[in-house]
C-alpha cells in the first residue's frame, strides 16, 4: 500500500461513512498515523440519496472526496480498496491491493440491504444505498416512462408506470413523497402525450404504521401527507416474492410492476475474519467503549456495531447520529488508551429524528417536542444542509432546492447511466 512507517500508533479505519469520517476528522493532527480505507474515493450523504434518484439533485452535490477530508492531517492516508479479510491474531488487514498492519483497528463498514433470505426479491428489486444505485434507479424511472410511451399494451403501460416501494421507514416515505410530486408537477409537462393518471405509487409496510421508529403523531401526519399526494399505503402487508413483473404478498394482494424499490430493512456489513460475535442483524457485538468483544485494540462503530444497554435492548438505531457520536468519542478514547487512562463510556444523545414528505411537508420528533408541516420542512432542510461536508456541496444543494421550490421542477432528469432493466419489453409499432 506504500504507507510509510511511523513512530506514532497506526489507526486503520475501514469505511468512510459517517462513523469513519467522524473519527478520521477528530484524530486530525493527533499523535496517530491514520489510514482510511474505502471501496469508493468519496463520502456520500445517504439521507439525500432519494433526491438523486428522483432528479432533484446531481450526485456530485452529495459526494465529497475522501482525500479532501484528510488533506490537512499531518499524518493521514487514504487508499481506495476492497477489504477482504481481517487477521486479528497478526493485527493485519488484507485487501485487494495489499496488506496493512495496525495498532488499532476501527471497523465502520456500515450496513447493507436485508432481503431476509429472499433471493428473487434481491435479484429483481432496486435499492439505493450507494450513489451508483441511486443513479440506476433514476434511469429506471425515466426509462420506464419512455417505454410506456412506446407500447400500445395498456396493461404493460400500467405496469411500467406502477412504482412499488417496500418499507415505510424514512427512506421509503421520502422516496414515495418525491415520486408523488414528480407525478403531480413534473411528468405531466415532460410527457404531455402520456396519461399520467395511470401512474401509481404504492407504499407497502409490514407493520401497523409508517415511520415506525418515530412517534405516533409523526406517523399519522406523514400518512396523511402521503395520501394527500396520491400515494397508496398498504399497512400490515408482507411481501413474499417479486419475479421482475409481479409482486406478491401474504394477504393475496399483488401488483403488476416493473419497478420495485426495496427499503424494508438493513443489516450490518461485517468483514470476514472477525470472531463469531454477530447479533441477529449481522452486527458486531461491542462493549460500552465500542471495543469488539474479546479485544482491546479492535473497535466497531455505527451501523455495523451492536451496543446493547438498558435503554437500547436491540442496540442503537442504525442512523447517522449514533455513528457520528461514537466516532467522536472513540477518537478521544484512543488518546486515553495511549496515555493509559480509563475510557469514557458511550452514552447516546438522542437529538431526535425527522422525515420529509415533500414540498412544505415534513415531520420532526425532538426528545420533548413534535411538530409537522411547513416549519418542520424548513427545519429538515436546515439540518440536512448544514450536515453536508464542504461549502461547495452546501451551496449546490441550497441553490438546487431554491430552484426546485420556485419553479416546481427537478432539473436532473437525464439518463446518464442507462439502466434498461426491462430489456424484454419491446416497443410496438403504431
From TrEMBL:
<feature type="domain" description="External alternative NADH-ubiquinone oxidoreductase-like C-terminal">
    <location>
        <begin position="351"/>
        <end position="406"/>
    </location>
</feature>
<dbReference type="InterPro" id="IPR045024">
    <property type="entry name" value="NDH-2"/>
</dbReference>
<comment type="similarity">
    <text>Belongs to the NADH dehydrogenase family.</text>
</comment>
<feature type="transmembrane region" description="Helical">
    <location>
        <begin position="369"/>
        <end position="391"/>
    </location>
</feature>
<feature type="domain" description="FAD/NAD(P)-binding">
    <location>
        <begin position="10"/>
        <end position="327"/>
    </location>
</feature>
<dbReference type="GO" id="GO:0050136">
    <property type="term" value="F:NADH dehydrogenase (quinone) (non-electrogenic) activity"/>
</dbReference>
<keyword id="KW-0812">Transmembrane</keyword>
<dbReference type="InterPro" id="IPR023753">
    <property type="entry name" value="FAD/NAD-binding_dom"/>
</dbReference>
<keyword id="KW-0285">Flavoprotein</keyword>
<protein>
    <recommendedName>
        <fullName>NADH:ubiquinone reductase (non-electrogenic)</fullName>
        <ecNumber>1.6.5.9</ecNumber>
    </recommendedName>
</protein>
<keyword id="KW-0472">Membrane</keyword>
<keyword id="KW-0809">Transit peptide</keyword>
<keyword id="KW-0274">FAD</keyword>
<dbReference type="Pfam" id="PF22366">
    <property type="entry name" value="NDH2_C"/>
</dbReference>
<dbReference type="InterPro" id="IPR054585">
    <property type="entry name" value="NDH2-like_C"/>
</dbReference>
<keyword id="KW-1133">Transmembrane helix</keyword>
<dbReference type="Pfam" id="PF07992">
    <property type="entry name" value="Pyr_redox_2"/>
</dbReference>
<keyword id="KW-0520">NAD</keyword>
<dbReference type="InterPro" id="IPR036188">
    <property type="entry name" value="FAD/NAD-bd_sf"/>
</dbReference>
<keyword id="KW-0560">Oxidoreductase</keyword>
Amino acid at each position: 500500500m506504500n504507507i510509510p512507517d511511523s513512530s506514532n500508533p497506526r489507526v486503520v479505519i475501514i469505511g468512510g461513512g459517517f462513523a469513519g469520517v467522524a473519527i478520521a476528522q477528530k484524530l486530525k493532527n493527533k499523535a496517530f498515523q491514520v489510514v482510511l480505507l474505502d471501496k469508493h474515493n468519496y463520502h456520500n450523504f445517504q439521507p439525500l440519496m432519494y433526491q438523486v434518484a428522483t432528479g432533484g439533485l446531481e450526485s456530485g452535490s452529495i459526494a465529497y472526496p475522501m482525500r479532501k477530508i484528510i488533506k490537512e492531517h499531518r499524518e493521514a492516508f487514504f487508499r481506495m480498496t476492497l477489504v477482504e479479510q481481517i487477521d486479528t491474531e497478526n493485527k493485519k488487514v488484507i485487501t485487494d491491493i495489499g496488506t496493512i498492519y495496525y495498532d488499532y483497528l476501527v471497523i465502520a463498514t456500515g450496513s447493507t440491504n436485508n432481503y431476509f433470505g429472499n433471493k428473487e426479491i434481491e435479484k429483481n428489486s432496486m435499492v439505493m444505498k450507494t450513489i451508483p444505485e441511486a443513479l440506476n434507479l433514476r434511469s429506471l424511472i425515466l426509462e420506464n416512462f419512455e417505454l410506456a410511451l412506446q407500447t400500445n399494451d395498456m396493461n404493460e403501460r400500467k405496469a411500467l408506470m406502477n412504482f412499488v416501494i417496500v418499507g415505510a421507514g424514512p427512506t421509503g416515505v421520502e422516496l414515495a413523497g418525491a415520486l408523488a410530486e414528480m407525478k403531480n408537477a413534473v411528468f405531466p409537462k415532460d410527457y404531455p402525450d402520456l396519461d399520467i393518471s395511470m401512474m401509481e405509487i404504492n407504499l407497502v409496510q409490514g407493520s401497523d404504521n409508517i415511520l415506525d421508529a418515530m412517534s405516533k403523531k409523526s406517523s399519522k401526519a406523514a400518512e396523511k401527507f402521503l395520501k394527500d399526494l396520491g400515494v397508496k399505503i398498504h399497512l400490515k402487508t408482507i411481501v413474499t416474492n417479486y419475479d421482475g413483473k409481479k409482486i406478491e404478498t401474504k394477504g393475496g394482494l399483488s401488483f403488476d410492476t416493473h419497478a420495485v424499490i426495496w427499503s424494508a430493512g438493513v443489516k450490518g456489513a461485517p468483514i470476514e475474519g472477525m470472531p463469531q460475535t454477530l447479533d441477529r442483524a449481522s452486527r458486531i457485538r461491542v462493549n460500552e467503549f465500542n471495543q469488539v468483544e474479546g479485544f482491546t485494540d479492535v473497535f466497531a462503530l455505527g451501523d455495523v456495531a451492536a451496543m446493547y444497554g438498558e435503554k437500547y435492548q436491540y442496540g442503537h438505531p442504525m442512523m447517522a447520529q449514533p455513528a457520528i457520536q461514537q466516532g467522536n468519542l472513540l477518537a478521544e478514547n484512543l488518546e486515553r488508551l495511549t496515555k493509559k487512562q480509563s475510557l469514557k463510556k458511550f452514552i447516546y444523545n438522542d437529538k431526535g429524528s425527522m422525515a420529509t414528505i415533500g414540498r412544505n411537508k415534513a415531520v420532526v420528533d425532538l426528545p420533548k417536542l413534535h411538530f409537522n408541516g411547513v416549519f418542520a420542512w424548513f427545519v429538515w432542510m436546515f439540518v440536512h444542509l448544514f450536515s453536508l461536508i464542504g461549502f461547495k456541496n452546501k451551496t449546490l444543494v441550497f441553490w438546487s432546492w431554491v430552484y426546485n421550490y420556485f419553479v416546481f421542477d427537478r432539473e436532473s432528469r437525464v439518463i446518464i447511466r442507462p439502466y434498461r432493466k426491462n430489456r424484454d419489453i419491446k416497443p410496438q409499432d403504431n
